[in-house]
G-protein coupled receptor 35-like
Amino acid sequence: MTYNHSFKDLCGYDQDQFVEDYVAHGLKRYYTLRLSVQILAPVGLLLNLIFLFVVVRVKSMRTIINVYLVNLAVVDTLNLLVTFGLFLGNKIYDGSHTSFIVSGIFDALRIVSYLLVVAIAVERFSAVHHPITYRASASKTRAAKVSAGIWVLAVGVGIVEVLSLLGHFGQGGVVPLTIFVVIMGSVSIVVITVTSTMYVCLVLKLRQRSPSTQHWRIGKVTSMLIINTTVFFFSNSLIIAAVILRVIIHLSHVCMASYPQLQHDLVDVGKYGRILEFINNCIDPIIYSATSAEFRSAVIQAVTCPCCDQRGAHQEPAPKDQMRVQAAELLSQGAPHCKAMAKTNPSQPPSEGELLELKVIS
């Protein structure tokens, strides 16, 4: 199926006029969005790079869940980099091939983040509901393969979008726009439904368990992920709402050019949705730090100077500690006076005076 009719035949509205109105209205929000990006992008890039540095530097941070979180950080970093670069170059959507490619990149990154959130929910659900099976099958290698598959799928969706936009605007595309619109709408609905259902089941399951140390640890990790996912969906709510609305409009065969005010409203929703999305790209590491004591400890460990660690490792022990070590050696060698002293008060370590006496005797 290809589009053989002109834009004006389909909508009764001149394509050039439609693009002109679209761009003119978009410019009203452009400078607000640009200012937001200039403020948020450097902060978000710094925080995400810190998170990636901590995971690479600290061995205890290389967990299965963090494999997915690393990929999320990469998505956030790429999203901020591309957007920041576009605004630095004063590039906006102008209907050219480049703008279609940029749109495909953004939506591909969005698909990656959506599916990674689902993958994290599935991991937590399996760990809580099927712990034995999960321990036998879960691994960082499997998580890496799942993440790689998500990236490949997202790149495919991005290519479909570029081809569909080229076809929709009569520039040689061979994929109907309906396919891409349905894909994006379906992914958005499935992600929200599956993720929310799994986390509700997780909360109910954890409330039924005994407060053991292991269950408490699982609960802490799950709580951090629930908070992160809630912020994620709140930040993407406007984008998801706009996508679903576009699906409804497209499947209803309504020409957007016939309703310019509706098109302008969707532009507004998309712009403000992008600002919320930028905020989410920036605050993920802050959420990890606020909800995870392990991550805070890992940050401190990662930024500690290796030279300081080596000096601390080779530092001479205090005199009192040296005497305690010598006392322990004397006790192990069976000195009679030491044995008698140990029997008189075996529950307490020798005092400093007794340590000096042991040193003199030895």
